[in-house]
Design brief:
This protein is α+β, with helices and mostly antiparallel strands. The chain is built from 11 helices and 11 strands. It is globular, with a radius of gyration of 20 Å.
């Protein structure tokens, strides 16, 4: 369900969709001093003693109800009537890079896997600052050299570790949408062998950490038969590292840049999409000609494309969406 506190008046359908699919996470504070040191070493010096962060478990909790029932976004039709379109989220892709290498150890008391951070941290002279600038201007010309030799086979190399951090986990969905399971079900499945997917904190993650969520429509209320654009599918991209939070040491970047985690007035961190792609957007239902929707959706698409190119990532869903895009 979409929040009744969010007013649709004056907002386009695209703006309403982005708002409704943005996860709002509980903001945690007082992380270990080592985590604060990691963030300070990656950004400009800061006088802040407290770093706000979230856990990946908090993130997946935001998708529990959406995965079970769908999330509703208000849509104003061409005749002025307002309906609610429901979407179910699916994990399309995720890459988790950590500031330090991770090892899984067995807890003899609880017989569970415990993720521990090893002491070797990635270089302070890494690509994090360049990546921040890249997201600021959606430019593929920044963070030069990140894309080279960044295939899966090279993830253990010194070059990859120095630039991106330590690759803890990655997943790219290749199945047909009809054979996929909702996001929280997929995370539960993947976390059985990778417990860090639920326990890692955003302060543990390097700036190269990201995920993509595919949103497929299921139904709308009240039902309408002849609105082709109600079958539109979306692909949203989100950064996961605390380095992009506006209340962390990179606040100046986050304040002026779309797509960075932002702290809301209710002490929650909003993971606003920094990139977006669409499929089956056949008409102008989602793009209000009286707004900057057309420019915004192009910027979001280009940002996603630039991000994937800089990481040398072949994202199957993005390629499919891009090949069938009418933008």
């Amino acid at each position: 369900m979409w929040s009744s506190s969010w007013s649709t008046r004056g907002n386009s359908n695209l703006e309403n969709f982005i708002h409704c699919v943005t996860p709002k996470l509980p903001s945690r504070s007082h992380p270990p001093q080592s985590c604060i040191h990691e963030l300070k070493s990656q950004c400009q010096p800061t006088d802040k003693e407290i770093v706000e962060y979230f856990t990946l478990g908090d993130l997946w909790n935001c998708y529990c109800e959406w995965s079970a029932y769908g999330t509703g976004t208000p849509v104003v039709l061409s005749n002025g009537e307002e309906i609610t379109q429901y979407y179910v989220p699916y994990l399309s892709a995720i890459q988790i890079y950590t500031n330090k290498s991770l090892v899984a150890s067995r807890n003899p008391r609880e017989d569970t896997d415990v993720v521990e951070l090893e002491s070797d941290s990635w270089s302070d002279d890494s690509g994090s600052d360049k990546l921040s600038r890249s997201l600021s201007n959606n430019s593929s010309r920044t963070w030069d050299g990140i894309s080279e030799d960044s295939s899966v086979e090279q993830d253990g190399s010194w070059l990859m570790t120095n630039k991106l951090g330590h690759l803890y986990f990655q997943y790219f969905e290749m199945a047909s949408p009809y054979w996929r399971v909702p996001l929280t079900d997929k995370i539960t499945e993947l976390a059985r062998n990778h417990p860090g997917l639920t326990t890692l904190k955003s302060v543990d993650l390097s700036p190269a950490s990201w995920m993509a969520v595919a949103w497929y429509p299921i139904y709308h209320i009240p039902s309408r038969k002849n609105e082709k654009d109600l079958s539109t599918c979306f692909l949203t991209y989100h950064t996961l590292s605390s380095i992009f939070q506006d209340n962390s040491c990179c606040s100046e970047v986050a304040d002026r840049t779309e797509g960075k985690p932002k702290r809301t007035s209710s002490s929650k961190i909003a993971l606003t999409p920094f990139g977006l792609a669409t499929y089956k957007m056949l008409g102008d239902l989602w793009l209000n000609p009286d707004t900057s929707d057309q420019e915004r959706i192009l910027d979001l698409f280009n940002a996603a494309d630039s991000w994937l190119k800089q990481l040398s990532v072949h994202h199957h869903d993005f390629k499919f969406f891009a090949c069938h895009s009418n933008i």
